[in-house]
Amino acid sequence: MKKVFTSTGELDKRAVSLGLSELVLQENASAAVAKVVKERYKGALVLGFCGGGNNGADALAALRRLCGEYECVAVLVSDKLNNNATTQLKIAKSAGLKVIKANEIDENTAGFISEALKGSVCVIDGIFGAGFKGELRAKITTLIASLNEAISANPLVLALSVDMPSGLDIAGIPSPLAFRANTTITMGAAKLGLFHDLAKDYVGELICADLGLCEGLYTSGVSSDFLLEMSDMRLPSRIIQNVNKGDFGHAFVACGDMSGAARLCALSALNMGAGRVSIVAKKKLKDLEPEIMQKRSFSGASAVAIGMGLGDELYDIDEILALPCVVDADMFYHPSVLSFCAKAGAVLTPHPKEFASLLAFAGFGEFSIEEVVLNRFALARAFSQKFPATLVLKGANTIIANASKLYINCLGSAKLAKGGSGDVLSGMILALLAQGYDPLLASITATLAQAKIAANYSGSAFSYTPKDMIKGIKCL
């Protein structure tokens, strides 16, 4: 896993204190941008949109590095340049960089930009960086909207953002929109805001640039959150051969009004390695898969999942609280969910609406779904500071919160936006808990496995179903 920081300003100051000036940092940043352009773009024209701050300075330096090998044009979108941008502009002009001031764009230059974006072109977004605050000015909003429209209509455009797509604030929230990059080259270390759900459609592929210090030295000693990688997935192992089904736990699923959700969870747990799987139901279930048993109590369980399809069905949760457990779906609308919050062996898996209900029960106040989405990092962290349970806040980028730390899984896809996906995820976590995983590792492994299965699926994105996900578990 990689370290992720709310802001890297403190890290940049440390680099400067070690003798790397801001201009040296910018040279390293611009070298990373130029390297990506040379590796991925085989056309002739590179068009850079440059602001007046350090982000614009990075873009100007990158354009200067590309001059001669490409036809490079800088469009200055600010009349006021800071010292670094002024210095980089002077050097770039000496190297032959063509410069257009946005407020001097006439019909000819506007036509040039419009035509350029219809063909093969590399666009470098250096308007604003991580320091952007507030709302975009009307002219910048219009410019970015026009660029986004042209980029989306032309697969030949390579759209790169320097550090963060312009229009995203440090929290990763568009204001009101942002530059839609194919690739974002972030400087030094990744910013947490790049993994906000609202930023996902603007960031594209993320590359972290080396600013002149190894990552360990650049980030050492500073508290961070973490970005999960596939290498963090720890799938069950059956290397030891002298074993029996009892060695891999007995996973129980509480069945409610909608038994299909419990069945998906149970099948998922069975495929994820649980030795035995049972469904606890108060009514006789028809056509139950032969591999799954029906029980009337939770006696003998290694771990329990409750909430999926529960509806108005109620269970005595005292027996469940004594075991590792997964809490999902309808349980977040019952006040008794607070008992699970206080349990270190519990994993809570809400989506934003369910999390809003959970926050209300937990005393954080009333939140709309929109407020939860906007403030998902802060709310997930606050919850994990108050309660020992592990939180898995589902979304475009899933957040796992444990003991004030956030673990971000940005590897999911729109394929997972289908009813039942959460039931399957709960079953995967349940199986791992039943096999002895601690709640954090079970959550990390299951969410990464879910993302990996979706990535492996070769059918159309809209056709992906929970049953496809369960089949995919077999191929991990």
Task: Describe this structure as you would to a colleague.
- K(+) binds at residues 55, 125, 166.
- Keywords: ATP-binding, Isomerase, Lyase, Metal-binding, Multifunctional enzyme, NAD, NADP, Nucleotide-binding, Potassium.
- The protein has 17 helices and 19 strands.
- With 476 residues, the protein is an alpha/beta fold.
- The chain has a twelve-stranded mixed sheet, sandwiched between helices. Strands 4-3-2-5-6-7-9 form a seven-stranded parallel sheet, with helices on both faces.
- The chain is elongated.
- The mean pLDDT is 93.
Q: Give the CATH H-level superfamily of the largest domain.
A: Ribokinase
Give the helix tally.
17
**How many strand segments?**
19
Chain-averaged pLDDT: 93
Overall body shape: elongated
Distance between the termini: 20 Å
Strand arrangement in the largest pleated sheet: 8-1-10-19-18-17-16-15-14-11-12-13
Poorly predicted sequence stretches spanning 5 or more consecutive residues: none
* Domain unit count: 2
The portion of residues forming beta strands comes to 15-25%
The fold-level CATH name of the largest domain is: UDP-N-acetylmuramoyl-L-alanine:D-glutamate ligase
Class based on secondary structure composition and strand pairing: alpha/beta
Helical fraction: 25-40%
Rg over CA atoms = 26 Å
Largest sheet: 12 strands, mixed
Binding site for AMP: 394-398, 422
Domain YjeF C-terminal: 227-476
Family: Belongs to the NnrD/CARKD family. In the C-terminal section; belongs to the NnrD/CARKD family.
Organism: Campylobacter magnus
